[in-house]
Amino acid sequence: MKAAVVGHPIAHSQSPAIHGHWLEATGIAGTYEALDLHPDRFEADIRALVESGFQGVNATVPHKEAALAMADSVDDTARRIGASNTLVFQNGKIEARNTDAYGFWENLAPGLLGQVPKRAVVLGAGGAARAVLVALQDAGVDHITLANRTLSRAQALAEELAETARIDPMTWDDAEDLLNRERTDLLVNTSSRGMKAENPITCALAAQDAQTVVNDIVYTPLQTALLETAAARGCRTVDGLGMLLHQARPAFQAFFGARVTVDRGLRHKVETRMGL
Ligand code: ATR
Predict the structure, then answer these.
(1) pLDDT in tens, 79-91
(2) Which CATH fold would you assign to the domain 2-98+242-274?
(3) Global pTM?
């Protein structure tokens, strides 16, 4: 059995290490490699992988939209997110799925202690925000504030996803004011701000307390400035590495037919590889 992650570039992908860990743990005689596919040849290269007996691929930047577009069928989650990170090949056909929303929620859920947040503030309106918003909608979060530096992008995304949840668009600055004034049940940063500790998020979170859960999907560094501020205020914090690990579980099951778990060994292995 063969699977791969496809991207451009692909050298920094952790997916081969994650799936390799599970291949070893389950004893399945399969392979999982990293393939650099040029965007101009994406569709032809994917067809060639189908022909050569691959079970499927994970798609990463910049191929997630092209993966959705070329599939013969698309699952509901991938359709709503507008992108696919998992292509499953079966009988010569390609099914597009998206496991990012699942990975986000699996990582977050233990931090919620069984409570579904009523109110959530989401920072950022890019590709990652789409998966987070779909997960929050599916979990039944009543009211979502979507804040973005570029307001028009938040407005467009709020409108697109309005069918299943109330999403209020807002500027980034207004959201910072809101977080200093009113408590929320959940705050998620989906923007790339704070990555590699550049331009960290400096909001004081003055109105947040021990009932607020704060999740940053940025995991370089693991403890971002946002999570440090949140922890100092007594909020419960959830780092972003678990989303990367959990989104791989349904893909592994689809490719290799076995259920797997995110254990300490896997997390430690990926943290070490990434120097976290
Ligand atoms: P991804 O797929 O990782 O979400 P993206 O689609 O490029 O990447 O989106 C990046 C997100 O991070 C956007 O919401 C972006 O805000 P803009 O839409 O205003 O560009 C946000 N972002 C990046 N750098 C930021 C910064 N310095 N301050 C605030 N938001 C930032």
Answers:
(1) 999 999 999 999 9
(2) Rossmann fold (3.40.50)
(3) 0.97
* Pair 33, 6: CB distance under 8 Å: no
How far does the centroid of ligand 1 lie from the alpha carbon of residue 163, in Å?
24
What tokens appear for 39 in the block? Answer: 């965007």
Cβ < 6 Å from ligand 1: which residues? 124-129, 148-150, 153, 172, 190-193, 199
The protein residue with its alpha carbon nearest to ligand 1, atom 27, reads 193
Distance CA 83, CA 78 (A): 6
Phi-psi domain of 86 (left: phi exceeds 0; alpha: psi -120 through 50; beta: other): beta
CA distances to 97, 124, 245, 250, 255 from 88, rounded to whole Å, are 8, 29, 19, 11, 7
**159-185 average pLDDT score:** 95
Summarised one tens digit per residue, pLDDT across range 201-218 is 999 999 999 999 999 999
What type of residue is 151?
A: L
Q: For residue range 34-56, what is the model confidence (pLDDT) as tens digits? A: 999 999 999 999 999 999 999 99
Taking the CA of residue 129 as reference, the ligand 1 atom at the shortest distance is 4
Q: Catalytic residue at 64? A: yes
161 vs 266: CA distance, rounded Å: 34
The protein residue with its alpha carbon nearest to ligand 1, atom 24, reads 193
DSSP bridge partners of 215: 188, 238
What atom of ligand 1 comes closest to residue 154's alpha carbon? 18
User: What was the pLDDT predicted at 186?
Assistant: 98
| Angle at the Cα of 143 from the Cα atoms of 142 and 147, rounded to 5 degrees | 150
Residue 132 CA, ligand 1 centroid: distance in Å: 14
Name which CATH class applies to 101-239.
alpha beta
